[in-house]
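Figure 2 data, in text form.
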Amino acid sequence: MNKLLWILLLSTSSMLFAATPYVGANAGYMLDSETGFYSARMGLDFARRGIVVHALEGEIGYSRTRSDQRDPMIPPQYWTTARSEMTSFLLNYRATLEPSASRFSYSLGGGLGTTRWNVSQGRFEDRKEAFTLQARGGVEYAMTPKIRLGAAVRYLWFDEITFFSRDYGSSDDVVLETAIRIAF
């Protein structure tokens, strides 16, 4: 049993020693929600098999919407503003193809986590959390060996949510985004 623990410890430590840490930031547009989406991520490129690089990353995403509800048939003192804030916390896996003769790389990945929603309508406010899944694909260009710029498409799926005692069911959105990634 002791030998097995030592083997696991040494293999894990050698994998982490060989891993390349990175940070990244994304700015995008949610097509269905018609609002911006911003995220920050930290990750590790933990394995390379030929031209395929495997990575794990933690990501925090944020989006905010606001709509003024002004109906000329309703007196102005009853006009309201609806606001929604979304903060997602995701654990992602990504596989990146890095052809040796090119500065371009191509990635596919997915993630899971939770999204916190804060919704307000006039004086009323509600907060909820929902299980979240995502799939992502993109292309990156290596400006330098450590800095990459990219573009991606992300699909987000949110589990069922109830606000103000009304069930909205599950929802989804597609995000078009740009990205920067800096390796250490």
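Caption note: The chain is about 10% helix and 75% strand.
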